Amino acid sequence: MGDLTAAHRGYEYQDLLEACRLVDLPLGGIVAVHVDEKLVPDDRFDDLTVIGVDGCRERTQFKHSDNDDHPLAYSTFTSDSRGLQLDRLVAAAVADRDGPGASARTVRLRIVMRDAPPDDAVLRKVMVPARASDAPFLAGMNTTLMRFDAAALWKGVELPAKGKRKAGNVFGFLTEGDTAVSREDLEWLCEHLVVELAAPPMTMDLQRPGAAEQLLLQRVRRELGAGIHPNEGRSAVDVAEALIRTVRAARQRGIEVTSQELLRRAQLRQDFGAVRRAHPVDRTLEVARPDAVGALVEASGTAAADGGVLLVTGPPGQGKSWACQQLVEQLTCDGWLVAEHYCYLGDADGDQLTRVMTEAVFGSLLGRLAEADPRLVHEQRPRFAADEEALTNAVTAALRKDPARRVALIVDGLDHVTRVRGGRTRRADPSLALAEVLSSLPLPTGSVLIVLSQPGTHLAPFRQAGAATLAVPPLAPEEFCSMAERLGLIPRAGSSTEALLTDARDVTDFLHALRERPVHDVPLS
To answer: DSSP letter string over 106-170?
Structure first.
C-alpha cells in the first residue's frame, strides 16, 4: 500500500508540474504536446514532451520523493530502481534523437527531482553546476541545476568493496559488457541533459497550496487572466484544477492536449469580453454622406499625428451613426487599422446593458484589434484580460509592427451610456465616468481615439484633455431627399419638397415637417 500511495503522489506531482508547463500552450510558446507517451522503445523521457514555437524539443522526466531532505545518491544512476540508470538514459535519448526528434532544431532533456543536491563523493566527481544559460523547468522554480561531466563518467569512479557492493568502477557498465555505450553518445546525452534538483513540494490541495501549486496558481492568474475581466467568474483555483484534470485525462485516457482543449476545459473566454460586433445602421435607409465623412477623415489624420482624441458631436437626427459607420469603412479602405464600438444599437439589442459597461468597451476595442491581427496580443499578459493598459499596448504593438499604418479607435453613442444604465445618480454620471477613462488613454503617435456623442457636460473630460472637436454637419438638402426617397415618402426630389429640404435643420425636423403637410401635398410613391 505504501508503494501504491507513493506512486499516486508521484503521478499527482507529475500532473501538477505538467499543468504548469502547459500554460504555455494557449500563450503560444508551445505548438505540440505529448503527455506520458512513449515515443521510442524503453523510453526514459516519456512523462512530457513539448515542441516549442522556436523548434526546441524538450523532453522531461519527473521523479517525486516525499523525502526532500535526502541528497541525490549515485545509485540513482547506477541501478534502475528509479528508471534512471545511465546506459538506459543514453539509449532512450539517442533513439529519440535519431527517430522522432531527428528534425528538431534543438533538443533539451531534463530530469526534475525532489531530491536535494548530492553530497557524496561519487556524484561530486561526475556532476557539475549547470551553465549560466540553463534555465529551470519553470520560471520562478528555486531549484539546483546540474549536469553530468561526460569525461568524468567515462573515466569512472573507483570504490572499495562494501557490503554487497564489489570493488571497482561504479560507472564501469557504461564502457564494458552488454550495457556499454559509445563515448560519442554519452557525450551527446551530457550535452543535452539537465538534472534539476530540490523541486518545489506540493500539498495536493489548491485551497492550501504548497510551493508547486503556487506556481500554477500564479501562472493562471498572472499569465492567463483567471479571476480578471472577462474571466472574473473563473477563479485561479478553478482554472488550475481544470488544467490538472486535462493533463490527467491525457495521461490516463490519451486525449490530445491542444490550446483549444485546455481553454475549453478551463472555461476561459478568449474574446476579451467583446460584445457582438454590429452597428445601428439600416442599410436600406442609409444615406451616403461623403462631405461629412471626408471632413472626419481629415480631422482623424490630423489628430492621429499627435496620438490624440477627436471629439465628434451633433444633436439627434444629424446622421452621426451613418457618418460613423461610413468613417469606419473609409478609414479601413484607406489602410488604417480600425476598431469600433457602438454603445447603443437599439432597444431590441440583447447586449444593451453589457454594451455600455466600461469593461465591454475596452474588451470590444481590444477584440477588434486582435481579430484584425492576432499577433498584436500574443505578448499580452494576462493573455485574455482586457483593460485600458491592454488596449494601449495593442495599439502600440500595431504601430511598432507597421509604423506607417495608422490606428483608429472609434466609440459611438457615448451619451447613451447614462440613459441605458438608468440615468444620473448622486454619485456619478455613467457617461461622464466612461469619458474620464477614455480621455486618459495614453495613445501613441500614429493613433487616434474618435468619440461620437450628442453634446453634453459628460464630454468635459475630453475638452479638458485638449481633444480636437468637430461638429457633424447637418444633412444637406440632397441627403434629406435621398433619405425621404428611401423611406418611400417621396418618389424623387421635386419642387413640391424643395422648401422642406431647404428649411429642415435635421432628420427629425424634416420628418416632422412631412407629417404636418397635407397628404395631397406629399407625392407618395
So the answer is: EEEEEEEE-SBPP-SHHHHHHEEEPPTT---SSTT---EEEEE-HHHHHH--EE--BTTBPSEET
Is-contact 12 204, C-beta < 8 A? yes
Distance of CA 210 to the CA centre of its chain: 26
* Residue 25 reports pLDDT greater than 70: yes
Strands 56-63 and 48-52: antiparallel
Three-state secondary structure readout of 43-63: CCCCCEEEEECCCEEEEEEEE
**2-22 helix and 211-219 helix, angle to the nearest 10 degrees:** 30
CA distance linking residue 19 with residue 242, whole number of Å: 9
Instruction: Indicate the Cα dihedral angle 484, 488, 494, 500, nearest 10°.
Output: -40
Quote the CA–CA distance of 379 and 329 in Å, as a whole number: 29
Q: What's the grid cell of residue 305? A: 499625428
Residue listed under C-alpha cell 450628442: 454
How is the chain split among helix, strand and coil, in percent rounded to 5? 45, 15, 40
Q: What is the pLDDT of residues 27-51, one digit of tens each?
A: 999 999 999 999 999 999 999 999 9
The answer to whether the CB of 480 falls within 8 A of the CB of 443 is: no
User: Sign (positive/negative) of CA torsion 213, 46, 82, 165?
Assistant: negative
Give the separation between CA 362 and CA 386, rounded to whole angstroms.
Answer: 6
Would you state the cell numbers that stand for residue 525, as one nine-digit string? 410613391
Tell the residue number behind the cell numbers 534539476, with chain if given.
196
Q: What's the pTM value of the predicted model, to 2 decimals?
A: 0.86
The alpha carbon of 515 is separated from its chain's Cα centroid by a whole number of angstroms, namely 54
Going through 221-287 in order, the beta strands assigned E by DSSP cover none
The pairing of strands 144-148 and 127-129 is antiparallel
Cell 547506477, residue?
78
Q: Do residues 88 and 173 make contact, with C-beta atoms less than 8 angstroms apart? A: no
Q: What is the largest CA-CA distance in the chain?
A: 121
**Complete DSSP assignment for 165-223:** BPSEETTGGGTSGGG---HHHHHHHHHHEEEEESPPP--S-TTS--HHHHHHHHHIIII
d(CA 290, CA 280): 19
pLDDT, residue 356, reads: 93
In terms of DSSP bridges, do strands 337-342 and 193-197 run parallel, antiparallel, or are they unpaired? unpaired
Q: How confident is the model at residue 283 (pLDDT cuts 50, 70, 90)?
A: low
Which string of DSSP letters, residue by residue, matches 277-297?
A: P--S--TTT----HHHHHHHH
pLDDT tops 60 at residue 522? no
CA nearest 451: which of 360, 327, 278? Answer: 327
